[in-house]
Protein: DUF1330 domain-containing protein
Organism: Streptomyces tendae
Amino acid sequence: MPAYAIARLRPAAPHPDIAEYIERIPATFEPFGGRFLVHATQHEVKEGTWSEDLVVIGFPGIDQARQWWDSPAYREIAPLRSRHIEGDIVLVEGVPDGYDPTATADTLRKALAATD
């Protein structure tokens, strides 16, 4: 099942460390099957507000995403970003092919019925 590293990053002033981080990050996730799915692209806000940048890196599975995050190569360059850009980063599993959200709705309906 695919997994994703998702970052919601607040705007930051340009800095040489950030440029170096951007140049070096692909080499850290490629050994784990990672690839950019969203990076430095424009977005269109449909509800609420969103002034941050969004980065999504796809991985074959959650184990590979965790191995990348914990890898010496990524830990070495992470401060280049974190010293200059604040944000929120999560690792999350995707859903399997053929995912049907009705099972989640059924679980919710059962929980609601139990509270009546």
Remarks:
- The two ends are 36 Å apart (CA to CA).
- The chain has one domain: 3-115.
- DSSP finds four helices and four strands in the chain.
